[in-house]
């Protein structure tokens, strides 16, 4: 992927982890926090780190925020600052805005004012951990929306050495297989004739209702 320009506003646990990871992956990262110590701490791990109040429109303008591809607003606790910073980056013309919320109502407000995607880290992680606890073969569960999700399944024994056609997950459960992971190799356009082998991981997409039927059937088999 081509090198993109990211601005990360707020360098708490979440924001600093996003900023450092993006930089390590070869992207340009401008990291902003009102707290000078946090700016100092991250200065060697990002392209630029600046101490400023992200609710100060003039300061954001001076930094040329409108030229950034993506803004990640990670201020959570102070809802007013989170909303103001999100609104300002939107008005300045940043194309894609991701904002961190602290509650469902906060998330709703962020969507209303123009965030393209809102993350509720504790809530999202709680959902993923719970799915993994219900069945250890559910390695990951990512909510795309309240209705649709992506699931990563360690293939149960009864699937082994069968083709996708034999498994007929689409007609049995209404879910679609997006990819099959075989160690480091990932088959991202699986055919009906592709065979599921032991230790493969199947990545599938479906409605929450259909996926939960699949989860139930897998955990029943394992009991
Ligand atoms: P995390 O869980 O990521 O640690 P948090 O929700 O506990 O975050 P917050 O206090 O909500 O932490 O905000 C994250 C960061 O945003 C903090 O480092 C804080 O200094 C910074 N921040 C808060 N307000 C502003 C602002 N107006 N401008 C710039 N940075 C701000």
From TrEMBL:
InterPro entries: NAD(P)-bd_dom_sf (IPR036291), RCK_C (IPR006037), RCK_C_sf (IPR036721), RCK_N (IPR003148), Trk_Ktr_HKT_K-transport (IPR050721)
Entry's transmembrane regions: none
SUPFAM superfamilies recorded: NAD(P)-binding Rossmann-fold domains (SSF51735), TrkA C-terminal domain-like (SSF116726)
Annotated signal sequence range: none
UniProt-recorded Gene Ontology molecular function terms: monoatomic cation transmembrane transporter activity
Domain RCK N-terminal: 3-120
Protein name, entry field: TrkA family potassium uptake protein
Organism: Clostridium tarantellae
């Amino acid at each position: 992927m081509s090198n993109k320009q990211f601005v990360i506003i707020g360098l708490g646990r979440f924001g600093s982890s996003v900023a450092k990871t993006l930089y390590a992956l070869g992207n340009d990262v401008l990291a902003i926090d009102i707290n000078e110590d946090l700016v100092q701490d991250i200065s060697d791990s990002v392209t630029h780190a600046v101490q400023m109040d992200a609710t100060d429109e003039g300061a954001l303008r001076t930094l040329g925020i409108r030229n950034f591809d993506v803004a990640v607003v990670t201020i959570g606790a102070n809802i007013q600052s989170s909303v103001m910073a999100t609104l300002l980056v939107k008005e300045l013309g940043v194309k894609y805005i991701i904002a961190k919320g602290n509650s469902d109502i906060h998330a709703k407000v962020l969507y209303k004012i123009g965030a393209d995607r809102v993350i509720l880290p504790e809530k999202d992680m709680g959902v993923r951990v719970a799915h993994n606890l219900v069945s250890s073969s559910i390695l990951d569960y990512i909510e795309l929306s309240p209705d649709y999700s992506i699931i990563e399944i360690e293939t149960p024994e009864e699937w082994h050495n069968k083709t996708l056609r034999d498994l007929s997950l689409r007609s049995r459960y209404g879910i679609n297989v997006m990819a099959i992971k075989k160690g480091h190799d990932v088959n991202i356009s699986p055919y009906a004739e592709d065979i599921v082998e032991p230790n493969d991981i199947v990545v599938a997409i479906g409605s929450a209702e259909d996926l939960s039927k699949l989860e139930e059937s897998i955990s029943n088999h394992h009991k």
